[in-house]
Known about the structure:
The protein is an alpha/beta fold. Helix content is about 40%, strand content about 25%. The protein contains 14 helices and 16 strands. An 8-stranded mixed beta sheet has the order 1-10-12-11-13-16-14-15, with helices on both faces. Helix 1 (about 1-35) runs antiparallel to helix 14 and helix 9 (about 290-305) packs across helix 14 (about 435-455). The radius of gyration is 24 Å and the shape is elongated.
Amino acid sequence: MKLRSFFSAFLLVLAANAQNDEEIIKNIYANSLTKGMSYQWLDHLSNEIGGRLSGSKGAHDAVEYTKAELESIGLDKVWLQPVMVPYWIRGEKETGYFLTNGNRHEMNICALGGSVATPEQGTEGQVIEVHGINEMKDLGAEMIKGKIVFFNRPMEPTLIHTFQAYGGCVDQRYAGAMEAGKLGAKGVIVRSMTLRLDNYPHTGAMTYGDLPVEKRVPSAAISTRDAEALSAALKKDPGLTINFRQRCEKLEDVESFNVIGEITGSEFPNEIIIVGGHLDSWDLGDGSHDDGAGVVQSMEVLRMLKQAGIEPKRTIRVVLFMNEENGLRGGRKYAEVAKSKNEHHIMALESDSGGFTPRGFSFDCSDEEFEQIKSWEPLFKPYLIHYFEKGGSGADIGPLKTEGMVLAGLRPDSQRYFDHHHTSIDTFDAVNKRELELGAATMTSLIYLYDKYGLKNQLQLPIKN
Length: 465
């Protein structure tokens, strides 16, 4: 009889909690859509500050701005965490063309982040087209030496998850120049990472690894429309030549900062939940989707918790990471400091997939933790949030992973993300206010639930003796 009464009381408490959670989450969405700050913050970050490549004035100004805004929220603590970051500058606008049968075709190109410059007059040579690094290696140094390698493997259009399509061909951008340099190539041109056919080249990080300086060759991205034109021209004239010119430069590392703020937990202050995005961006646009959206959504999580009068049990911390794009120094530094201080992080959520309509989350966690997460799905379905899957989380929170910890990534609709990613059209006008605010509310709701219930193996029955 006592056991039956216990379980009856337990079920009543669960029902009351569910009803309470439903009401709180409803209020979170309402507040974000009517009184939110994310769009206003993004407007300033994008239009007043602009591109925020690590080491640049824009990155410095973004640190100062977001720190001041976090302080204005009334958090318990706001601070800057120093981190040394690479400082690469693009220089004057890149130019390029190919010559075939006496005709000159101008190309839309941009230097890949970290690339060396071309000679003053540009790099010129015969082109050889390949569809991946392995194909180039199979051709060998005899075929590659002295030529400009054109990597032309497109993103796979049949993959609905566009990040999978991106992952399937981004190696040619990241490591193509390193591998081509080993074979004696003169330079590298890489098809832009997008499913759209347009005239916008997409930059992004590349590496030379430990390749000697004398073997490092310039590497540039070419727009998809020009990649198609070049490929077609090569079929008619295999001996055509390219000339491209870029004046980029790698300088000494400089000091920058992660921007951090927190609400101290009322019951379990040593259990830390973080939410974040990366404050740096590429320099071609203003980085509104990548990752201005994630930055302001993460800031909004703490602001809305404060506005709603929710007093977290656990410490909720926002981290605006520096240097995700070309080094991941901010994420690694945060994890290094957390480990040195023996901090106990139980959960981390990252937004770095654009400011589009949220669909749900992916989780890096145990099956036991995922069971708890799945039980929250009904709370999100009224907002058309249905995607709760195990998988990746985010680059900046990855180094923080420890056994038992939950990592999560916000997953917006990604069909248009790679139209803008790393381009001159990643700008404020491409972000929809309502979609951005829905994402902020979705993140806040998940953080609220994790703060309330903790990890599954830490749960206690919410019944007093």
